[in-house]
Amino acid sequence: MILMTISTMVAAQTKPVNAFGLVYAGALNKNIPGKVNIHPVSYKLNGIDISANIYTPANFDATKKYPVIVVAHPNGGVKEQVAGLYAQRLAEQGYITIAADAAYQGASGGLPRNVDKPANRIEDIRGMADFIDHFAGADKDDIGLLGICGGGGYALAAAQTDKRFKAIATVSMFNSGVVRRDGYMNSQVATLNERLKQAADARTQEAAGGDVLYIGGGKMTDEQAAKLPFELYREGYEYYGKTHAHPNSTGRYTMSSLIDLVAFDATTNMRLLDQPLLMIAGSKADSYYMTDSAFKAATGTKEKELCKIEGATHIQTYYVPEYVDQAVNRLTVFFGKNLHQ
Hints:
This protein is 33% helix and 19% strand. By secondary structure, the chain is α/β, with parallel strands linked by helices. Strand 9, helix 9 (288-297) and strand 10 form a beta-alpha-beta unit.
């Protein structure tokens, strides 16, 4: 069987000691009156239980109205990792923020586990907006959207037609369909038909009640990780498998999902995105080509900005303090300009 993705997981994962399961530096461990607070919530989306965290700003008053930012997590990630970090940091700037685990992933429901279909991920983003509309203090007419990595590609796709999102931002955008189709940096173009045959066979097996087959999520040694061909994968191994590991973040997806992923491209209808757009990426990220392509395709908006974080790689924008600070500062200016406060 052809290796379609590189697993970024290691064998050992320990249960997070944080009270809310958060694994990023500076994470909230308890709610203190007058400070940024976190509110674990759950809700139904198309019959599936969704697990989410809502962050409220300091001195939150539910009788007032606050602008909202919806945060979409990376592929294979969960709300307790980088999505939570950015949600918390933006709440510190006065926003109500929400980060939810995608359906079929993380602590959310849905079977089989780790289905990763673009239509579902886009619906997850819209579902967060649906839910936050009814949260006390949230201004339903003042919603921004931030997507990180794979969540960035899905955020672009969601915003093309969902105009509840008044301003759109991405950090280290990853165009999932392009990579699943052609391989990272076009490394798997020649194997597409064979991989699609495997995906079709996997779907047939699932439909017959057989075992669900997965891509990724296997064990890897440090030596094997060091030989991975791309920096994103090598650093992803460290982030997801070691420094920011979370038991709900498996790094795998169902092989049958490939049928849907291959047909997806976040930039297909970028001309429909007419909201203000900010795209942030590390200057040293080997994934930068995806941000560049999407930004150039965004011909429908009159306000767009491309921000390079000098010296940062893709994964470093997830956790390195100086790079996160730069990204948050740019996001704060952007959302402050385009959302009412």
